[in-house]
Amino acid sequence: MSNPVLVCALRRINAFKVLADALERLTQCREKLSRSDSLLQPVMALTPEVTFRQAVLFFTEMDFVTDHAYHLLKYIYFSYLEGECQRCHAESLFTYLQTGAQTLCTVLLIKPGAWSRSLAKILRKLVLEKFSVVGMKHINLEPDVALGLLSSEVKQDPAVLEAHCTYLTSGTTLVLCLQRPNAVKKLVDLLGPEDPKLARALDPFFWRAQYGISMVQNGFYGSKSYQIAVRDMKLFFPEGLCCAECQTLEEEEV
Q1: I want to staple 217 with a disulfide (CB 3.0 to 4.6 A). Which of 52, 213, 225, 242 is the partner?
Q2: pLDDT tens across 143-170, in order?
Q3: Nearest-CA neighbor of 129 among 115, 153, 143, 108?
Q4: Nearest CA-CA partner of 131 in 202, 217, 222
Q5: 85 and 121 share a domain?
Q6: What is the pLDDT of residues 131-144, one digit of tens each?
Q7: What is the four-CA torsion angle of 123, 127, 129, 132, rounded to 10 degrees?
Q8: Pairing label, strands 132-139, 75-81
Q9: Range of the domain at 76
Q10: Which of 41, 75, 99 is the last residue before a domain boundary?
Q11: Looking at the structure, do residues 65 and 109 belong to the same domain, yes or no?
């Protein structure tokens, strides 16, 4: 080619869909502004398999395992010994792509009312989706804990915030720690939008579509990211879990 190209390796949740949507918007804006061929012509890999093959062509292991490419690492763990921060483990993107989905844990809260009415059906759904229950307890949420589970959008409206907190502390909540490959994203995908009405319009099989009543009484809370899942596990299961020990949980000190 007569002109240079810029090759980027990007990583995030739902990377393929998010990048495809972003490039589509970019193309639409470009067509409105100019018809010039000199503008960027983006091309993306469409599957994990193609991504891996192309990454091997353009990058080496050392391109990813560097201090300046932290965001491209699968994990970097640090141990703090006498005030000194030392790298103790790093796994490259290549290794991550070859390994595939890791077995992880996530946290599911079945909100007051929902679990007492439909627990057997919900547990059956978890079995069908190949989740293992590695932690379970029923608790009455304290107001500060309930507040910590709410999104920033909910906290912007005092009336909505009060309604959520009042409901979450109104009865017993069943807390489950679930384990399976790609557990966090799988659970988020199954729950669907937080608004049960929207969930029913998009897909009546979303769990919030089936068991939710309103934005406040929507049936479930699920950890939205791996970092939040680790926080939730430490919050609700400080005594530990009943799953087999694995490197991920050990290094997160769960």
Answers
A1: 213
A2: 999 999 998 888 899 999 999 999 999 9
A3: 108
A4: 222
A5: no
A6: 999 999 999 999 99
A7: 100
A8: unpaired
A9: 15-99
A10: 99
A11: no
